[in-house]
Specification:
single chain, 281 residues, mainly alpha, 14 helices, Sterol_Desaturase_Related, transmembrane helix, transmembrane
């Protein structure tokens, strides 16, 4: 099975991406949580355009990506799991959980360090919250994220299968938890014990810094509770809350070229954790 997955990795990734994207997009039409405030056509052109640019940049700079690093580490005996006598399935499961925690810490770092926040605020500047928001990250942030991921994969000697599972899960759950799908409150309460739900993550996209600097998890919801960064609900409720950042409210500035330039020409506002207003209103 592992050999089959490695052999057909690009097709498997694309199939999961398109399948989940399509299912979530349809779900947003059938059961919308909020009424969108911006032109969907213009937002989607910018957000999907970013996905294409990110994919091209990663393919150019990291042809083998994190999976290639895992295979190289295995071949050369690098990392913990390539030198520890543990069952393969434990190495796979532990690697997936560990990498998810790393992504949580990375996310916090991008809110804490002002220069990193400048990159990450492109993601938060989206004035609506739907499936495409989950794929909207600045190319430089994507490159830095890949460097961190490759480093951690090599450090722990993560099996290549674990890396594929982690990346497919992360990509899929990011689209789900950024979706505009209405999940019944009772089901949401159960789901957020195991996965980050749209209502849980939507709090993170509030204009209030105290809410923006909470609920950092993308996949597993446990880290926010363990690290004290969990907020169950937005103070104004999901229908009345405002999505985005206070300093970016003009849709005409949030074109594809505009959001690519955002880190260099936009103001960071009071959102970085260690800024004077980062823990305020």
């Amino acid at each position: 099975m592992e050999a089959f997955i490695l052999q057909h990795e690009p097709i498997i990734r694309l199939a999961f991406f398109l399948g989940i994207f399509g299912a979530v997009a349809i779900g947003e039409i059938i059961l919308p949580r909020r009424q969108l405030t911006q032109s969907k056509k213009h937002r989607w052109f910018a957000n999907v355009g970013i996905v294409i640019i990110d994919a091209l940049v990663l393919r150019l700079l990291f042809p083998a990506a994190a999976v290639g690093s895992a295979l190289l580490a295995s071949e050369r005996g690098w990392g913990f799991f390539n030198n520890a006598n543990v069952p393969y399935w434990i190495a796979v499961a532990s690697s997936v959980v560990f990498l998810d925690f790393v992504i949580y810490l990375q996310h916090v770092m991008f809110h804490a360090v002002p220069v990193f926040w400048r990159l990450h605020m492109m993601h938060h500047a989206d004035l609506d919250f739907d499936v495409t928001t989950g794929t909207r990250f600045h190319p430089i942030e994507i490159v830095l994220s890949m460097v961190i991921k490759i480093s951690m994969v090599t450090l722990i000697g993560a099996p290549a299968l674990a890396v594929i599972i982690f990346e497919v899960l992360l990509n899929g759950t990011a689209m789900f938890n950024h979706s505009n799908i209405s999940v019944p409150l009772g089901l949401d309460k159960i789901l957020r014990l195991f996965v980050v739900t749209p209502d849980m993550h939507r709090v993170h996209h509030s204009v209030f810094p105290t809410e923006t600097n909470s609920n950092y998890g993308f996949n597993l919801p446990w880290w926010d509770r363990l690290m004290g960064t969990y907020k169950p609900q937005p103070r104004l409720g999901h229908i009345d809350m405002t999505i985005g950042l206070n300093q970016f409210r003009d849709p005409s500035r949030l074109t594809l070229l505009g959001i690519l330039w955002l880190p260099f020409g936009g103001k960071p506002g009071n959102y970085p954790i260690n800024s004077r207003g980062g823990s305020g209103e």
